[in-house]
Write a structure and sequence with these properties.
- By secondary structure, this protein is α/β, with parallel strands linked by helices.
- It folds into three domains: about 210 residues, 3-Layer(aba) Sandwich (Rossmann fold), CATH 3.40.50.620; about 90 residues, Tyrosyl-Transfer RNA Synthetase (Orthogonal Bundle); about 70 residues, Structural Genomics Hypothetical 15.5 Kd Protein In mrcA-pckA Intergenic Region, Chain A (Roll), CATH 3.10.290.
- About 45% of the residues lie in helices and about 10% in strands.
- The strands form three sheets. It has a five-stranded parallel β-sheet, sandwiched between helices. A five-stranded mixed β-sheet has the order 8-12-11-9-10, with no helix packed on it. Strands 6-7 form a two-stranded antiparallel sheet.
- Helix 12 packs across helix 16, helix 13 runs parallel beside helix 15 and helix 15 runs antiparallel to helix 16.
- The longest helix has 18 residues.
Length: about 425
């Protein structure tokens, strides 16, 4: 498959300034993609575009990956109904480090250049910016943006000059990278189209050269109709301290049946044949969730590594209690468990043991009174089922093991082993 065919098949084709998409299949193009360090981690929303970038690189195009140290100080107002709270230089610096590390992980083994737009903005004066950038941007173009209209319209929260000017800053990024590194293409998600157009226009007006955009549609959960990548607990992060590998794996396992084929195309590097094969198996028996399991493993491996993905897989299978065909402790070491956010996961009890005492003794509760309160508040789960009784029953143990959890987070789980 050519790159244009691959992007179309995988669902990465949305708006573009190219008149003919096969332009992507010719000579190598230097392109860029950027992430603002408004948080200390990317999300699975960012990851969708990162996966598209991987295909561009694999096809022979040259990637420039930008971390927005300057734009992050303002914050993208697009899609926001109110002004963002400004972050300090220290916060942005810490976030930049984390985003850079995630770039290195996701694009490990691939070639790319890394840049920070703070480097070319930090010494630029206000008058210089107005003359070199602002002079070339029509006010009508800026006022026509949807988010500006919404913020300035009746009932809108208003907009500051700083946020109003955000697209100028991002537009200058494109101009700078075009002049200094030969960048002629920006890739983005559909929600960034307006900001990217500002850059294309700036390059054209100032240099007279052509510049282009390739955007991917936002990923939508087909069951709920909402933007993909959100859970009851909020965003799904790539940082293991914010979303543990176990939770990350479980997020993918829980993918909706209607969207799982699309997610396999977007969030894995599996071939067309591999995806068609697993989808055929999935169609034959949806209850087996073969497609979701493969998606979960591949997506977790990409972000957290194969060892963590395997550990998360074993844990998820154990917690769901389909079967215990192996002794978990033989495959999942204490170190493996620590890597996926579960400390000392195995705990032995006698028949008829107290759930309250086990919660305390295993560290799931800090005291027996807290354990008792958890039980009263329906916050205790045995094998994924809420319980209110005070004692384990022998039927709870399958192959001599059960999963005891406090609350809904998978990392708050202990594997309880029945003493022989």
């Amino acid at each position: 498959m050519t790159l244009s065919e691959e992007l179309t098949w995988r669902g990465f084709a949305n708006q573009t300034t190219f008149k003919d998409v096969t332009a992507l299949d010719g000579e190598p193009i230097t392109f860029y993609w950027g992430v603002d360090p408004s948080a200390d981690s990317m999300t699975v929303g960012n990851l969708a575009i990162a996966m598209m970038v991987k295909h561009f690189i694999r096809a022979g195009h040259k990637a420039v990956l930008l971390v927005g140290g300057a734009t992050g100080l303002i914050g993208d107002p697009d899609g926001k109904s109110e002004e963002r709270t400004l972050k300090s230089l220290e916060e942005i610096a810490g976030n930049k480090t984390k985003i850079t590390e995630q770039y290195q992980t996701i694009f490990g083994g691939q070639s790319f250049d890394l840049v920070d737009n703070y480097d070319w903005f930090k010494d630029m004066g206000y008058l210089e910016f107005l003359r070199d950038v602002g002079k070339h941007v029509p006010l009508r173009q800026m006022l026509s943006r949807d988010f500006v209209q919404a913020r300035l319209g009746e009932g809108g929260a208003g907009i500051s000059y700083a946020e109003f000017s955000y697209s100028l800053i991002q537009g200058y990024d494109f101009l700078h990278l075009h002049r200094e590194m030969g960048v002629s293409l920006q890739v983005c998600g559909a929600d960034q189209w307006g900001n990217c157009i500002a850059g294309v226009e700036l390059v054209r007006r100032i240099t007279g050269n052509e510049a282009h955009i390739w955007s991917a549609p936002l990923v939508i959960n087909k069951t709920t109709g909402k933007k993909f990548g959100k859970t009851e607990g909020g965003a799904v992060w790539l940082d293991p301290t914010k979303t543990s590998p176990a939770e990350y794996y479980q997020f993918w396992v829980n993918s909706d049946d209607a969207g799982v084929e699309e997610y396999l195309k977007i969030y894995t590097m599996l071939s067309k044949d591999d995806i068609e094969h697993v989808m055929a198996e999935f169609t034959q028996d949806k209850s087996g969730r073969a497609a979701q399991k493969l998606l979960a493993f591949e997506a977790t491996k990409l972000v957290h590594g194969e060892q963590a993905a395997e550990a998360a897989r074993i844990q998820a299978e154990s917690l769901k209690y389909r079967t215990f065909t192996v002794n978990i402790s033989d495959k999942l070491t204490i170190q493996d468990a620590a890597d996926i956010g579960i400390a000392a996961p195995f705990f032995t009890v006698k028949s008829g043991a107290s759930i309250i005492e086990t919660l305390h003794a295993s560290g799931l509760a800090t005291s027996k009174s807290e354990a008792r309160q958890l039980l009263a508040d329906n916050g205790v789960y045995v094998n994924d089922q809420q319980v209110s009784r005070e004692f384990f029953e022998d039927s709870d143990f399958q192959d001599g093991k059960l999963a005891l959890r406090r609350g809904k987070k998978l990392q708050n789980t202990k594997i309880i082993v029945l003493e022989k």
